[in-house]
């Protein structure tokens, strides 16, 4: 069921609820935008499918609770992105505390998220209406697509080494 999806106004049908629950993660292309739909802990989420940092594919990222929010971890460079808001997180030292402590800090919204709705067992996505630039937009454009293709080609050319050597 991958590929372009038919739209009905602002809502785009992406699949049947039971199929998407079973898949847990699915990619769809909506209006030339690659979207990742995630089902986790009883809720659906939708976001741009390539990480804002370097275009890594988020589909295979682990999901963890970071700072009280469910986040997907980019498998490429381990960037943490909240599923609901697209907020980026990093761990740093809060020097305002005595003694200083390691804690999570927000980078703000970095990944474009989209609204998921359900009607009669069918799941729809409404693309984000946010008019401003969000970092993940880069990897949806032509330059970002070219950069992703080059990175994929480089990964394919790099031979894997045995860790026992």
Please tell me about this protein's structure.
- With 165 residues, the protein is mainly beta.
- It is built from 2 helices and 12 strands; from the N terminus they run ββαββββββββββα.
- The protein has helices spanning 17-23, 142-157, and strands spanning 7-8, 11-16, 25-30, 33-40, 43-48, 63-66, 69-73, 80-82, 87-94, 101-109, 113-119, 122-126.
- It has a 7-stranded antiparallel β-sheet. A 5-stranded antiparallel β-sheet has the order 6-7-8-9-10, with no helix packed on it.
- Strand 3 (25-30) and strand 4 form a beta hairpin.
- The longest helix has 16 residues, at 142-157.
Task: Please describe the topology of this protein.
Blueprint: E1 7-8, E2 11-16, H1 17-23, E3 25-30, E4 33-40, E5 43-48, E6 63-66, E7 69-73, E8 80-82, E9 87-94, E10 101-109, E11 113-119, E12 122-126, H2 142-157
Antiparallel strand pairs: 1-2, 2-12, 3-4, 4-5, 5-11, 6-7, 7-8, 8-9, 9-10, 11-12
What's the arrangement of strands in the largest beta sheet? 1-2-12-11-5-4-3
Shape: globular
* Helix content range: 10-25%
Quote the beta fraction. Answer: 35-45%
Over all CA atoms, what is the radius of gyration?
A: 17 Å
Beta-strand segment tally: 12
Q: What is the distance, rounded to the nearest whole angstrom, between the alpha carbons of the first and last residues? A: 42 Å
- Tell me the number of helical segments per DSSP (H or I, 4 or more residues long): 2
Main beta sheet, described? 7 strands, antiparallel
pLDDT < 50 stretches: 1-9
Pattern of helices and strands: EEHEEEEEEEEEEH
Structural class: mainly beta
Mean pLDDT level: 90
């Amino acid at each position: 069921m991958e590929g372009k999806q038919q739209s009905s106004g602002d809502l785009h049908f992406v699949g049947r609820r039971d199929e998407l629950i079973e898949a847990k993660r699915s990619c769809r292309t909506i209006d030339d935008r690659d979207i990742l739909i995630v089902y986790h802990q009883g809720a659906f989420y939708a976001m741009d499918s390539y990480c804002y940092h370097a275009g890594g594919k988020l589909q295979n990222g682990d999901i963890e609770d970071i700072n009280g929010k469910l986040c997907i971890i980019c498998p490429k460079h381990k960037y943490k992105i909240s599923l609901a808001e697209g907020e980026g997180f990093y761990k740093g030292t809060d020097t305002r505390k005595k003694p200083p402590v390691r804690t999570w800090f927000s980078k703000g919204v970095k990944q474009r998220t989209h609204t998921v709705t359900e009607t009669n067992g069918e799941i729809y996505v409404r693309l984000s209406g946010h008019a401003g630039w969000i970092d993940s937009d880069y990897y949806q454009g032509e330059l970002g697509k070219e950069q992703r293709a080059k990175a994929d080609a480089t990964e394919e050319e790099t031979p894997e080494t045995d860790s026992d050597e």
